[in-house]
């Protein structure tokens, strides 16, 4: 029987009932673990998601990653664990596994990496999402897509709501990522309407935390890299441009709540508070000064800078620091 469902921006629509999951879900005598696939699970956000999922003893986690931007080091604590499995796999190729939930994160998210091979980036977004939706249809799994705030393009609305359609350029150098994610969202809803697949879509905004790639070219990692090396922090003029920054642990909590909730999405996930680039630079400078001078961290410092502190400690291992007061005074 067809059913109606409400999502975050499209109102009501009629869908087919979802595919039937594994018979183990209905067993009267055996309680099976939840089997969860995380594509791109060796990456920055993906590896933190795996850590959180593995805390639940009823979860079995499978990670599929081609290690283009991800790293086995991010998952080394779980390798060999009886509830964890790591597969070197490119999502542009079909994957046959039996799972109950799919977190589809696979795709390079930094311009440095997704512009390196734009054709492969859009294939990952389109063909990779098709393959994961085909898997979800076959096994009756719920699937969550991590989309991006980049689907709004160069927005004319601030802040952007999920109902905003965006101001986009379909032929720009970043379009392999932006348009690829837009197509991925389209595929998700078409599979949902036509085949009854249970979908969830998260539009992720700027995220930071441990395991960021220090060379990914984004502003938080650039500032932290300069601070660790004792260099002046480079802020592009005028410095009053704003961004929001969400700590990775909060992002993971949001993804899991979306997956296990009733809202199809798309849902914006990020920090609602915005900061200017000068404010961010000052925060990074203050935390790096505290570390370099071995000053005690008071409660307010921990509240304001805990995430940045963790990032700096993560990047500072084996990095030389400058003792020059002049370096600390630049931002």
| Estimated radius of gyration | 21 Å
Oligomeric state: single chain
Look at the structure and give the mean pLDDT. 83
The string of secondary-structure elements, in order, is EEEHEEEHHEHEEHEEHEEHHH
**Sheet with the most strands?**
7 strands, parallel
Helix content: 25-40%
Query: What is the number of beta strands?
Result: 13
Q: Looking across the biggest beta sheet, what order are the strands in?
A: 5-4-3-6-7-8-12
The number of helical elements comes to: 9
Q: Terminal Cα separation, in Å?
A: 61 Å
State the secondary-structure class: alpha/beta
Family: Belongs to the NAD(P)-dependent epimerase/dehydratase family. UDP-glucuronic acid decarboxylase subfamily.
Pfam family, one: Epimerase
Region (Disordered): 1-23
Main location: cytoplasm
Description of the structure:
The protein is α/β, with parallel strands linked by helices and 331 residues long. 36% of the residues lie in helices and 18% in strands. It has nine helices and 13 strands. The strands form four sheets. It has a seven-stranded parallel beta sheet with strand order 5-4-3-6-7-8-12, with helices on both faces. α1 packs across α6, α5 (219-228) packs parallel to α7 and α7 (277-292) packs across α8. The longest helix is centred in the middle third of the chain and has 22 residues, at 118-139. Residues 295-306 and 316-331 have low confidence and may be disordered.
């Amino acid at each position: 029987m067809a059913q109606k469902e409400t999502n975050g921006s499209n109102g009501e629509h009629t869908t087919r009932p979802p595919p039937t999951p594994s018979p183990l879900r209905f067993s009267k005598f055996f309680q099976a673990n939840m089997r969860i696939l995380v594509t791109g699970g060796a990456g920055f956000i993906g590896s933190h998601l795996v850590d959180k999922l593995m805390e639940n003893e009823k979860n079995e986690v499978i990670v599929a990653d081609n290690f283009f931007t991800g790293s086995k080091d991010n998952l080394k604590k779980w390798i060999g664990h009886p509830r964890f499995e790591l597969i070197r796999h490119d999502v542009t190729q079909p994957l046959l596994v039996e799972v109950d939930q799919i977190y589809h994160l696979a795709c390079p998210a930094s311009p440095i990496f997704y512009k390196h091979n734009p054709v492969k980036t859009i294939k990952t977004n389109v063909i990779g999402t098709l393959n994961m939706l085909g898997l979800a249809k076959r096994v009756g799994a719920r699937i969550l897509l991590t989309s991006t705030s980049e689907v709004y393009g160069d927005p004319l609305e601030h802040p952007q709501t999920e109902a905003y359609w965006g101001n986009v350029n379909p032929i720009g150098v970043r379009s392999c990522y932006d348009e690829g994610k837009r197509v991925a969202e389209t595929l998700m809803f078409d599979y949902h309407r036509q085949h009854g697949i249970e979908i969830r879509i998260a539009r992720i905004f700027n995220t930071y935390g441990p395991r960021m790639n220090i060379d990914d070219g984004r502003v938080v990692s650039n500032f932290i890299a300069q601070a660790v090396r004792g260099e002046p922090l480079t802020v592009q003029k005028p410095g009053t441009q704003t961004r929001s920054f969400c700590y990775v642990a909060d992002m993971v909590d949001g993804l899991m709540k979306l997956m296990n909730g009733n809202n199809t999405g798309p849902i914006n996930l990020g920090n609602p508070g915005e900061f200017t680039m000068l404010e961010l630079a000052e925060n990074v400078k203050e935390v790096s000064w505290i570390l370099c001078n071995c000053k005690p961290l008071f409660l307010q410092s921990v509240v304001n800078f805990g995430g940045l502190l963790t990032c700096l400690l993560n990047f500072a291992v084996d990095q030389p620091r400058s003792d020059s007061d002049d370096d600390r005074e630049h931002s």
